[in-house]
Amino acid sequence: KAPTLESAADTIERSFRAAGEGTVAVNCKLLDFARANVNSGFDHVKDLAAARSPLRVMRLQMEYWHDCLETFASQAQELRALSVELVANANEPIRQQLRRRVKSTAA
Known about the structure:
It is built from two helices and no strands. It has helices at 5-50, 54-106.
């Protein structure tokens, strides 16, 4: 039985729905990252304001940027994993439809 226009439209709708849900999750994660990064920056400024020597300022700067690089790397990994999941979930309805099509053609 050939897939109907209705089943194709349903497949596309399910794919778009999954992509939309994944996009919301990615956007929420990006907002969490932004919030954490801004708070980290404010905390750093407070630490700098309390520093009593130029040497302490330099150490704080080095520690801050070291921590930032680690945080950014971790955030990039989280975002990549979430993006991979988004694409997989959005493509799953299409994969299922193709499997059904191949199975029905083979039968």
